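B., you asked whether I could sanity-check this one before it goes into the benchmark set. Here's the sequence:
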Amino acid sequence: MGRISEERAKVEFGDFQTPPGLAAETCALLVRLGVNPTSIIEPTCGVGNFLFAAADAFPNALSVEGLDINEEYVATVQARLRERADASRIRVEHANFFETEWPQRLEHVPDPLLVVGNPPWVTSSDLGYLKSHNIPTKENFHGRSGLDALTGKSNFDISEWMLLKLLGWLDGRRGTVAMLCKTAVARKALSYSWAQGLRIASSSLRQVNAVKHFGASVDACLFLVQFGEAAGDQVCFVYDTVDAAEPASVFGLRDGVLVADAAHYDKRKSLCGESQYQWRSGVKHDCAAIMELRRAATGYENAEGEPVEIEETFLFPMLKSSDVAREHPEPRRWMVVPQERVGQDTAHIARVAPKTWGYLTAHEERFNQRASSIYRGKPKFSIFGVGDYTFAPWKVAISGLYKKLEFRLIGPHEGKPVVLDDTCYFVACGSEAEARFLLGLLESEEAREFYSAFIFWDAKRPITVDLLRRLDLRRLADLRGAAAEFDRHRASIPVTGVSSGEASRAGSIQGALPLHIGAAPPKRRKRITT
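And here's what the prediction gave me:
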């Protein structure tokens, strides 16, 4: 039980103590940068490694203060203090960051001020799960509204909350913040501070090997912010290591948007707009064990190794992110797609494909166990991310999980359109010529530079639908002298997403593919939304 308790405490307090070597390296950098504080504070000092490294690096600092919520750590620091000749200028205190009156406390601390530390690497949802009290008073500090405030987007790192508060309290003062944290946390805190108009004179991120120093597989950095009487340019220099001499890249705030590469943004910002093609996510079903099949010697089998005998009517070759990330994507699975559009009644499957209906019904409880509320009150076996675009014969796709900017041409397989799962993004095309043309645009140097301006590769999902939609493909085509060809493709009317009866009648028309048999009465053919 002792080990379990220790592990729980480590999670609850985000307890990754700063190694003495890293603390010393950080403080040596601060000295080289000309930082010369009168006062030093570490709000979450732990066992004191960072606190004492700062005291050693800046012997002329008049006061050095450390605070921590863990009484055992405070006792450890106090014991170490007794061995120091400069103990009179160093003070450590047992205190909870979230209950400390920081504005009043900092008011009596003389500038220049240096705030160092390694705040907790834990999120608010983690602490909520643990029913922890080591958490700030709930507040929608990003000002989100509606669904965003109720879903995961309201989750945040505790260190992000701490950093935002510290940066706000130091606004208008002369001082430096030097914090070890997740790279994404530093970036969000800096972006928010810029947007709030804080007087940040300069900032930088220096990459830290978190696996080596903390045993944590996360992108981490040393986050440096210097304050002054006036704000400097809203850019942040990114270094590959703590002691690197030259920055590897520069990100910043441009036109109210955080960009990953300021130079590429300045070069390609004329391409910002709305994509004339609609980027889509693939099919969302949250039931892969039943919905995704593999071919076996005598038919199909599901992820549990169960033989599956069903009609081909609602079965489509599929690609996942791992497949799309390959140079030559080839379907290795087949997906049961019981609907042609969101909310469509599925009862007709029993008549059209009784074996498929029997298979789905036999596993109905698995569908009922899906956690997402989006399935509540919907027809049996409902899916999302499905429409005419799902069954387009040609697509240009990209993986949403793999961290590389590589687009793929996806064509029919064994006479059927290939469907994608919800970890992929794509645009639907009615012909191979149209798809190849779009692929050429997206693979162009101009497009790569444009997207590179926005992509933070350390993000959990660096490529998103919102990002892909920012590129105005018509402007890009015009820039490349291909506006007429772009307009020609946009004016065409691909035959996709039609009912099987209509598809069979239109079989001689390029791009038509048979879809669901009897899934819906014949309807007037319309242009797909791309």
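One thing to flag: The two ends are 57 Å apart (CA to CA). Otherwise nothing jumped out at me.
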